Amino acid sequence: MIKRRLLPELIKHLKEKEISLIVGPRQAGKTTLMKLLMHELAKQNQPSLMLNLDIEEDKKYFDSQEHLLRKIRLELGNQGYVFVDEIQRKENAGLFLKGLYDMDLPYHWMVSGSGSLELKEKIHESLAGRKRVFELSTLSWEEWVEYRTSYRFEQNLGEFMELEATKTKALLEEYLSFGGFPRIVLEQELSEKRKIMSELYESYLLKDLVELLGIQKTEEFTGLARLMASQLGKMVNKQELSSTLGLHIHTINHYLWYMEKTFYIEKVTPFYRNIRKEICKAPVYYFSDLGMRNFALGLFGSSAPLLSDGFLFQNFVFHRLKDWVRDTSWQIHYWRTTNKAEVDFVVDQGIEITPVEVKYQNLLKPNPGRSLLSFLAQYQPKKAYIVHLGKEMRRMEGNTELVFLPFYRLIPASME
Predict the structure, then answer these.
(1) Which tens digits make up the pLDDT trace of 226-272?
(2) What CATH number does domain 7-135 carry, 3.40.50.2000, 3.40.50.300, 3.30.565.10, 3.40.50.261?
(3) Domain 141-308 carries which CATH code?
(4) pLDDT for 191-217, tens place per residue?
(5) Virtual torsion, Cα 309, 311, 315, 321, nearest 10 deg
(6) Cα separation, 194 vs 202, whole angstroms
(7) Class of domain 313-415
């Protein structure tokens, strides 16, 4: 069993009146997480009911609110916990749940669904003020390492990674290659991993496309998906994408928006103060799961091309920074100038800004690159981070403290 760090938060929220809404990509582990929650409730002698809208026998109860409530009362009586999986299958799901919530029933609702357009947009709008959203991604770096080390170092994971540098580097390369889909992680055989990823990839590109966008010819969309995989971490010119694929620019924008909403890619916009000298429009995209990205390029499970791919490591760091800014109003940007100076990430904290440069190498001396020095001279932040494969080092550059941080220490507590 893979332990998920979201589980304690969900257990705590079971006491609240708000609907617990779990969103995330297909096969990230939402159903498994809900079953674990039901197991926890069973240990406390609390009644619960699971209904899955992917199952026809369960789906029939959602033809009306009254029909569903009759089923719930029959199973749970006058109180309990109702788990609804794959809620995006229900038409007008947001309004349906809003009506149930507003009846002030003695049940806590735990609802999950894949990141479809219906789920991400209409449900959120209808349930404003009535739900709390929990996003479940594929396995994070910590979850993955804890599982791969059989939870022997669960309480001192940082100590393990510092003392076992060689093993940690090998684990990093494996994680960069395969990503964090639970089914991929649990499977031992490479051939089976590839079959599972192929199934996940085809399900995303074909099933979701047909059901949600009504696209019958998927070649254009799959071409864009592969092209985005090849441009990982690079500035994207949508006009060039349009010319390369022979698609209208509006179609490119629509498809990219869809990819974001379904947890395939994530957009990072530029940080700028001077529109004459700094890039202010072109976005950069990263992948929600590296295994999916590698599969799109035919590199899944192949280690040789990955070892020199600094953009994969950059994508890894982006995920770590997302953990840092979670539950804040902070934003992650990148910085480029017309003179081609660049900083991989700039965390905009409102009053403060923090640049983060990424180096997929073991730096032996605390020497920042010319681009970072240019950023420091212009913005003079209090701190700047250089994430690399080596040890921690520190030095002052003017009024800025430069922190050369080992990648495994890139966690919120390390960046206070």
Answers:
(1) 999 999 999 999 999 999 999 899 989 988 988 888 888 999 999 98
(2) 3.40.50.300
(3) 1.10.10
(4) 999 999 999 998 887 776 666 677 766
(5) 120
(6) 12
(7) alpha beta
